[in-house]
Amino acid sequence: MYFVTGASGRLGQLVAGEVAKQGAQGETTLGSRDVGKLDGLARQGFRTAVFDFDNPQSMRDALNGHQHLLLISGDTAVDERIRQHKAAIDAAKAVGVESLTYTSFTEASSKSRFTFARIHAETEAHIKASGLAYAVLRDNQYAENLANAIAHAKETGTLGIYGGKGKVAYIPRGDVAFAAATALLSKSVSNAVYEITGPQAYDAAQIARILARKWNKDVTAVDLPREVFVSILQSAKLPDFVVEAIASLGEAAAAGEMAAVSGDFRKLTGREPESLESFLDRTA
């Protein structure tokens, strides 16, 4: 039996879709704090269960009888999320889960400029200390993260990205979901860390050139000042810790933390990830 946490989120729903393509929905339980959000997936044949990161008993009850767990990283503040992840790993171990797949992030280190990196570093360490078999998926930035900047560029001809001089090996969320589902359903999880990246890294100037060719218009890349970028984020009424995380993500990109390209996606899934150019051709 397989279990997926955070199944009502965007990545979780895509993972469920990939599991269904493999015909494994009858063997898979989807967890969420609000199971009502999973009603549509339940009608597709998935089991559902209350899974509350702040309630260890709910996690143990939900995971009981499952051998394989996909732990999708949560969305709370740093220290809270570290505590939640550790509690979920402890619950998995307590009820006899055999293997755990975790959606981490590239450069999962306390030395990273990205404020959420410490979450992933400490979660990875706890997984490794647990004794569970594991697959850690260090995902690079979603290609979808560019959506707002691209929409603005289409309207104005200016592609503004904070930290845009750094290259990023963007990968579509759908490919991340495919990798996660593949690892979850694998019969041979063997304590591996996979760097899940697109096939090429791009800086803002390269993205602007791709868009200019697609739209047949001039597009200029601009590296946004930090105060301007933070002001844009704050205007969206995002929590302060999220604003700081997104800003620090740009700083990590500028420092080259997301530029490395890996063949691990192909190694794990047997297929190539979609390039950013192909993604933009479909969506921009």
Provide tags for this entry.
alpha/beta; Rossmann fold; 7-stranded parallel beta sheet; single chain; 284 residues; two-stranded parallel ribbon
Fold and architecture overview:
The protein is α/β, with parallel strands linked by helices and 284 residues long. 45% of the residues lie in helices and 15% in strands. It is built from 12 helices and 9 strands. Strand 1, helix 1 and strand 2 form a beta-alpha-beta unit. Helix 4 runs parallel beside helix 5. The radius of gyration is 19 Å and the shape is globular. It starts with a strand and ends with a helix.
Structural topology:
Layout: E1 2-4, H1 10-21, E2 28-32, H2 39-42, E3 47-50, H3 56-63, E4 68-71, H4 78-94, E5 99-105, H5 117-130, E6 133-139, H6 147-156, E7 158-161, H7 173-185, E8 192-196, H8 204-215, E9 220-223, H9 226-235, H10 240-254, H11 264-269, H12 276-283
Parallel strand pairs: 1-2, 1-4, 2-3, 4-5, 5-6, 6-8, 7-9
Secondary-structure arrangement, i.e. CATH architecture of the domain at 2-140 and 171-196 and 260-273: 3-Layer(aba) Sandwich
Query: Can you write the helix and strand succession as a string?
Result: EHEHEHEHEHEHEHEHEHHHH
CATH class of the domain at 2-140 and 171-196 and 260-273: Alpha Beta
Average pLDDT reading: 97
Rg, Cα atoms, Å = 19 Å
Query: Which fold does the CATH topology of the domain at 2-140 and 171-196 and 260-273 refer to?
Result: Rossmann fold
Please state how the strands of the largest beta sheet are arranged side by side: 3-2-1-4-5-6-8
Largest beta sheet, briefly?
A: 7 strands, parallel
